[in-house]
Amino acid sequence: MERLVADLRAEARFADQRRVLVLAGAPDATRAAADTALDAADVPRDETTSVGPEPFLAGCEHLEPVHAGNLLGRTREAIVLDCQDDFRPNALGRCVGAVDGGGLLVLLTPPLDAWPDRRDAFDASLAVPPFEVSDVAGNFRRRLVETIRAHPGIAVVDVDSDTVEKRGLTDPAPRLPVTPPAAPADTAFPAAAYEACLTDDQVDAVAAFESLLGGGTLVVEADRGRGKSSAAGLAAASLALAGRDVLVTAPQYRSAREVFARAAELLTDLDALDGLDHPDAPQELRTAEGRVRYADATSSSILDGDPDAVIVDEAAALPVRVLERFLDAPAVAFTTTVHGYEGAGRGFSVRFRDRLAESGHEVVEHTMTAPIRYAAGDPVESWAFRALLLDARPAVDPLVADATPESATYERLDADALLADEHLLREAFGLLVLAHYRTEPNDLARLLDAPNVTVRALTYGGRVVSVALLAREGDLPADLRADMYEGGRVRGNMIPDVLTTQLRDEEAGVPVGQRVLRIATHPAARSRGLGSRLLDEVEAEFADDVDWLGVGYGATPELVDFWAENGYATVHLSTTRNDASGEYSAVMLRPTSAAGRDLADRHAEWFVDRVAAVLSDPLDDLDPDVARAALATADATPALDLSEFEWRLLAGVPGGAATFDTAPGPFRALAIRHLIGTAVDLDVDADLDPDANGPLDAERLLVRKVLQARPWDDVADELGFVSTAECMRALGRVVEKLVRAYGDSTAREELDRHDA
């Protein structure tokens, strides 16, 4: 084995590429072999990281699999990934991306033939109740083993028998001499910024950042290892030298670490670094007249410091709601990984490009293709892309552009069908990547192996045009339901969990349902009803086997309307924002049996009873259009049991005899009664901005002032009233219409008295 490892390492160095060494066998034997292999490869231990449940290599860094994300933005000569007891596909993706050119990724696995049938800690996480670990399939690992055996650049050693199953050597041609990149002429940035670039591609990227000096908008997309973060760092330093206040943000600081490292390096070389806050992990660099600073992308006050330019690194991993805010900056650059587990550049394009177009910004675009960490043609990159489907994408637009609900075919895509057709798998998973901000390799394993997960799709001409990922939930035993009710958490049963733990319904886990985890339609065939057709087919298939269909998602007005149009009704709004979407989540149900109807009815009633109090406190910043849509889709009629005194208060407001602030309670009850399922004409737009939508903004006024208790001045500014006084009078006219619609004769007489 030692001779093979030495040859593998020598070839990796010669080609400036990476190689993979698989050590298969018993756990202790593979760990001992890893120690021997590192010595044979002449890899320093301080340049090695082991990733696994337990440290076993002396003198090297150790990370648990769930913390493999700490490798982001770093490079290592060797990474040893222990797959014996807890193999997580996410960890594999993160480890591959952190190995430098000339380095080795060492995988410790059970015997490859037996590995797909083994069950470990990750499998246990897929066995959601009421399923057992024995119900989990081994399809992901079976496919992974096939790619290991098929792809070049991967050596396989059976350590139990001390035999080489596959050498993995590729005998690459000699590398061509590398010509240093040339700096462009007449640059606004310092020449040193371009001299620090490693490829012509990176030079072009840094030059593209010069557009920010004039207040532009830039989008830089690249595969991992192309040096986009380094280019952003060189540009950030150059902007600071020009006196700019540069804000750098990302999903986490670790994503932006390389930006600061390269910026600090350039400023130091130019003797222009006047100060920094933390030498090892700086979050602020200062020059004589400018600075580069970091802030959390999710902070609501991120732009309060009025930065001159914003650089958003790994933008595809951030929600559109967060990205939109940066369009208010004088200049902004979005950089993102095209194929990566943090988020997909293609998804960024689909979700955010429409918003960019609507913004009116002139956008400069740049794509980086030349690798920096390793040479072009690296076989490990192509293996990782295939094994983890990092480059999965939908069918090309022309193949599905003519698809309609009538011409599409409903397909039940079980794991066998997906594994038998690589194109089908790539297209289905590629659409799911578009549907979600952080689709990861773990999700591919879940799709192929989890016993509660199924995939359904519409195809057109054999191409996937719409896809839904479903999870079976509920049917939980009494002891588990009791544990949930007492505060215990249950995996993979999101809707029963929320309804039981947060809403105190111990019986919510009895009915069985199918939750739509994700649904996506091809961008070239959207807005034609294909998603609705797919949901109809899902209901037709499962209606006799489950009690409810449900969904939980980051709520936007458009999404709430979509689900409502398909028969789903709101039963809950979360009181914290969803980590993935950045939005507050809505839970909606569509019952399919008497038991499901009972569940939906009682939670709809509880929702309308409690929602006014929730909107005035934890949800006082909820988008008013989301609130309107969610209330309109609640399948219950709230009681409006007001006293004679409360009706007199309401009736006195339109004429100015009473004020809203005296007793907001009855106003909230009246607003809820109107917004849930009843249409009353509220055309009171005379005092609004000429472009405003009167009836719509009247309902926004009810949400913002009456339900969310926002200050009068803020409501007036947001809704375009000419003054706060006019905003108050508009609310009075809204109240008058509602009292006439819902009040009794006494209430109407009181209104008439003030009109007289």
| Gap between N and C termini | 100 Å
Largest sheet: 8 strands, mixed
Shape: globular
List the uncertain runs.
341-346, 685-693
CATH class of the largest domain: Alpha Beta
Radius of gyration: 29 Å
CATH topology of the largest domain: Aminopeptidase
- Helix/strand/pairing class, anyone? alpha/beta
**So, the CATH homologous superfamily of the largest domain?**
Gcn5-related N-acetyltransferase (GNAT)
> Which percent bin holds the helix content?
40-55%
What CATH architecture of the largest domain do you see?
A: 3-Layer(aba) Sandwich
Give the count of helical stretches: 28
Strand content of the residues, in percent? 15-25%
Number of strands: 22
Average pLDDT taken over every residue: 90
Total domains = 4
- Within the largest sheet, what's the order of strands? 10-11-12-9-13-14-8-15
